[in-house]
Amino acid sequence: MDAASLTAATGATACALLNDLQAQGHALGHVAVENLNRIVAGPEVAGPMLVVGLGTGVNAAPVHGSGSGRIVAPSECGHVNMPVRSEEDMRLMRFVEALLSSRGDIAHCGVEEVLSGRGLANLHSFAASEAGGASTALSAEVLAMLDRGEATATHAARLYTRILAQTLADLALIHLPYGGIFLIGGMARAMTPHFARFGLGETFREARRVDLLQHAFSITVVEDDYAALTGCAAFLQAQTA
Question: Residues near 167 by Cβ (< 8 Å), separated by ≥ 6?
Fold first, then answer.
């Protein structure tokens, strides 16, 4: 699909093609406040933002500027290495590598393999193996078990939250999103009720040599099913104004 073909087919006077993450980036600043769920408090300042998609895949993109000057830079950071901070993390990484290899996939444990929908399923398989069992549960089943307080699902959700917090902290130091970090996607919204009890904020604000993570950067979940369409409209309006 390309803009010229779409214009010819529809008769539209203005046409642009955006991927979903870009569209979500262009929506920031246009989403109703009641659809923004702040889960980690931070200073209210203007500046660069970061949109992080957690769904069937994982990706993040920095958002700079506003109006016709807004830039949502492309990225493939869902495939950066999973943070490894403990012996358990090392076992998890090796477990996911072996799992991928057994499926005929490339044996690389990127963050998408632990933070997407299938990532939560992978975490549950790992948690089950740590307890001496096995699991082939899908993410929806894991979430249902989590709601019932099932121990292996709780272990998986705790891992998910810690890895997400560390990943967001790394991205925050790379991009310095003083205007906030915004989580989108089905996994972000499904896990939101559990983030506080598993310490997302505390892990995100873990002390490092630079103290930015201890006071800067808010984290907000976008709870608007139409945010991507809003972003498309905002982009077109800015380009044609």
Answer: 82, 83, 111, 115
Q: Where do the structural domains in the chain lie, given as residue ranges?
A: 1-241
| Gap between the Cα atoms of 195 and 192, Å rounded | 5
CB atoms within 10 A of CB 73: 11
d(CA 232, CA 234): 5
Q: Determine the average pLDDT of the residues in 65-89.
A: 93
Structure tokens at 38: 């702040």
Q: What is the spatial distance between Cα 181 and Cα 179, in angstroms, rounded to a whole number?
A: 7
Cβ-contact 43, 215 below 8 angstroms: yes
Three-class SS of 25-78: HHHCCCCCHHHEEEEECCCCCCCCEEEEEECCCEEEEEEECCHHHCEECCCCHH
**How far apart are alpha carbons 79 and 119 in whole angstroms?**
12
CA 238-3-24 angle, to 5 degrees, is 50
CATH of domain 1-241: 3.40.367.20
Interatomic CA distance for residues 236 and 224, integer angstroms: 19
Predicted structure pTM score: 0.94
Q: In what order do the strands lie in the sheet with 181-184?
A: 36-40, 219-222, 181-184, 49-54, 58-64, 71-72
pLDDT in tens, 196-227: 999 999 999 999 999 999 999 999 999 999 99
DSSP class of residue 82 equals P
